[in-house]
Design brief:
Growth Hormone, Chain: A; 2 domains; mainly alpha; MFS transporter; globular; transmembrane; transmembrane helix; membrane; cell membrane; 79% helix
Length: 436
């Protein structure tokens, strides 16, 4: 019984056939997405042998997410989210099909490949806020955290499997087949979402354009618990993102062995998958605030420990711990955001969460590189981890609602009726954080 209570909670799969079908479709589509990511990097490098062009792939994926995301969030809070998701899924599938066509024909300028990647990322920036309402609308409140955990563990599993499958397919059949698999995978994603009920916003929709975006930002800055959750995530990513330091630390401490470098990245993923697979106790407890703070602090401490160790095995253990802590922190933060945000604002808040998730790691890797350039990779890791711990401690100390109490439901005890743009943002009331 204890083991069953520790494993990821499977109740959403049993109680909601619609959620089960949606999860299956999005899982296959995620596998295709990671295959395309690897294939684009391979194609660009094989064509140009330029690190600059390879770096441009990341910009082509990230910039549309940031630039389109907030306005897309305001738009989806005015319309039926199901229709938006289906339309954006078709758009992404068309982009993958065009990538497949150029992959089979060859001799296409790299700039055109990056344009297709950017257009596909723009469609993804629209679908993400729309999908942000699916779990809280499909599942009972006490199963929301479990549903998010299932999405997270399947996504992490595809992150491990996708690059490996892409490598095999690239070696046997070439880039066109990889892109084609991704295009076909969107068919299952479309099928999974087609059975969803209509999902218009509950309450009055968002105001158009910039006004709607500002209304969402006003909620974020005024709601202490949601704001604290996103600030904690920024602290963890901006102050202590370690990935850009791995090659330098591997050279400084472990002789530059490429096998060690690969294990660094795998260790984070292994920790994340393991923690999510064993998230049952966390999702059933219904107190995501304290869990998120503890997990974010553990992330910082584990990375500082990685910076201090000279043993490869001890370093890998620290990274497994960091990956596990990160997975728990992400799950808890998403639980807070999706259970405490009014449905009429959820698209915009999900979009803001997406922007934080895109911008934070990039800024964190930049910060790490600058500090390492002035000192060393180990110093950048240790200082970043300690700064993360200090920032998380500050957020927890200044936000007692996040430590153990929060609104009883989205928008606080008063509830949300009418246009959220005209309502005062309620302060958190001293009731326990609900389960996600």
């Amino acid at each position: 019984m204890r083991l069953a209570g520790t494993l990821v909670d499977l109740r959403p799969l049993r109680t909601s056939p619609v959620f089960r079908r949606l999860l299956f479709g999005r899982t296959v589509s995620t596998l295709g997405g990671f295959m395309t990511m690897v294939t684009v990097l391979y194609q660009v490098w094989d064509t140009t042998h330029s690190a600059v062009w390879s770096g441009a792939v990341g910009l082509a994926q990230a910039l549309p997410m940031v630039g389109v995301g907030l306005f897309a969030g305001a738009w989806v809070d005015r319309v039926d989210r199901r229709r938006v998701y289906l339309a954006s899924t078709v758009g992404q599938a068309v982009c993958s099909a065009l990538l497949a066509v150029q992959g089979f024909t060859g001799h296409v300028p790299v700039a055109l490949v990056l344009v297709l990647v950017a257009v596909q990322a723009s469609f993804a920036a629209v679908s993400a806020p729309a999908a942000g309402v699916f779990v809280p609308r499909l599942l009972p409140k006490d199963q929301v955290a479990a549903g998010l955990a299932l999405h997270q563990v399947t996504g992490q599993a595809m992150m491990l499997l996708g690059p490996a499958v892409a490598g095999v397919v690239l070696g046997w059949w070439g880039i066109g087949v990889c892109y084609l698999f991704d295009a076909l995978s969107f068919g299952l994603s479309f099928y999974g979402a087609f059975g969803l009920p209509a999902l218009p916003p509950q309450g009055e929709g968002a105001r158009p354009g910039l006004h709607g975006v500002l209304d969402g930002l006003r909620f974020l800055t005024g709601h202490r618990v949601v704001r604290g959750a996103l600030v904690t995530d920024l602290a963890a990513t901006v102050l202590s993102m370690p990935v850009s330091l791995f090659p330098l630390v591997n050279t400084e401490r472990f002789g530059g062995d490429p096998r060690t470098l690969g294990l660094f990245l795998s260790a984070l993923a292994v920790g994340g998958v393991t923690a999510t697979a064993l998230s049952g106790a966390v999702t059933r407890r219904g107190r995501p605030g304290p869990v998120m703070l503890c997990a974010s602090g553990t992330w910082g401490l584990a990375l500082a420990g990685f910076g201090l160790t000279t043993s490869a095995w001890a370093g890998l253990a620290m990274l497994v711990l960091a990956g596990a802590a990160d997975a728990v922190a992400v799950l808890s933060r998403s639980t807070i955001v999706q259970t405490l945000t009014p449905d009429a604002l959820l698209g915009r808040v999900t979009a803001a969460e997406l922007v934080v998730g895109q911008a934070g790691p990039h800024l964190g890797n930049l910060r790490a590189g600058v500090v390492a350039g002035w000192s060393s990779g180990a110093t950048a890791l240790v200082t970043g981890g300690l700064l993360c711990l200090a920032a998380v401690t500050t957020v927890g100390a200044s936000t007692p609602e996040l430590r153990g109490a929060a609104p009883a439901g989205p928008g606080g005890d008063e509830g949300v009726t009418g246009d959220p743009a005209t309502l005062p943002v309620p302060e958190a009331s001293p009731t326990p954080l609900p389960e996600r």
